[in-house]
Amino acid sequence: MNLVAFSIKTKGIHNFGRRLWTVFTRFGISEARTRRALHTVVNILQQYNGAPTFFIPAVVLRRHPQLIAEIADCAAEIGVHGYVHNDYRSLSEALQYKQTEQAISLFQKTQIPYQGFRNPYLGWTEASLKVFTALGFTYESNEAVLHNVIDLDCFPPLLRNGYEKSLTLFQAISCSTYTLRPHFEGPLVRIPTSIPDDEMLFDRLRINTEEVGHIWCKIMERVYDFGGIYTLNLHPERAISCKHALDTLLSYAHNQPLPVWSARLKDVAQWWKELGQFRLHITSEGPNRWRVKADCTSRAILLARHLIVEDQPTSPWYGVDVHIPSHSCIVNAAQCPCIGLSPRTSQQVVDFLHEQGYPSICCPQEDAQMYSLYLDMPEGLGITREEQIERRSMLVKQVEQLEAPFLHFGCWPDGNRAALAISGDIDSITVQDFFLRILEVNLRT
Ligand SMILES: [Zn+2]
Known about the structure:
Layout: H1 3-26, H2 32-46, E1 53-56, H3 58-63, H4 65-72, E2 77-80, H5 93-109, E3 116-117, H6 126-134, E4 139-140, E5 144-146, H7 157-169, E6 173-174, E7 183-185, E8 188-190, E9 193-195, H8 198-204, H9 209-226, E10 229-233, H10 243-254, E11 260-262, H11 265-275, E12 279-284, E13 289-295, E14 302-305, E15 308-309, E16 315-316, E17 322-324, E18 328-332, E19 336-341, H12 347-355, E20 360-362, E21 371-375, H13 385-400, E22 406-409, E23 418-425, H14 431-444
The structure holds zinc ion (ZN).
């Protein structure tokens, strides 16, 4: 399907006509307009000690290597957004592999380092994950977590219809503590992205910039409560008109009681790998007394609840958790403050708990009472993707709501409660790029 047919199918003829008009107002014949937009995002983020992550199709990079190198030099991360701007769901695994390899080759020729992949239209498939892993990507950022913060009843059916088409197109999943965290699939880190994105808010629902700023803050508030990551998706073509909204969001995040980590997606992937290596060693020091030693990097934070830390002062954290300033301590608790696992619990569960920063010890069923939480999960975490998301979400929720002595690692580094990554897909830089997409996608599918 070509871009015109695709756009008409997903946006409707009315919206497509409108889109065509905006192409000429958002892109220029030269790179100047997009250069200004990219620097706008970089500069706003710099004021908050952050930097963005941009994804770009390899063919667009090939036409504008100097501009992208210039942006990368400003600490922006550049990731791969396909070889051309096509939907991988229409490609076989072999074709996905071939095109991803071609994209890598172009990135290497232009000497732009990359670590991550985001699919056009967030159109990932199970085969895509295999391809990204085989070709050595560190992470991908495609899973679209939906934040239900808009009252759709306030919008006319035509606009609502367009919005709902996007939800289907982006394979939206619901929001939970688990889905708002990155996770491993094999060695590949998957970092969730958030919807509605800028296109859904501006073009589908036609919400004004000021209101969009408020919506982004509402999403940030939810993400902060869940302690997850907010990956904002802002296409640079809307960056200049969104400048105020972006500033509102960053200022809101910056003013939370606990800090919010402003990060590029590659930093998030790096951190997630680091967190998975941390271990907590808990040994008995007599009745109700435990020696705790964390095997972790200096960026880790140790959190505790429903216990007394004997040898050092703690500071309040979030909810019932307190922050222990060092990585070793003596605590008083009636139970061992970690998760006991039955010997038949599957390795998948053990690995998952490590990844989430939750300490666990394998022990026989008769010792279950000695632990704050005891799990017997021989069946593991499910087979189908839906099952896996549901069981993992339930498990994380169970641990997070545990009303018993418990120690764990915070899931973000350096005392941060949540993370905020500003990302944007550079689908086109000039008007020519926009129309070349039609030709390029047709040649490739
Ligand atoms: Zn795109």
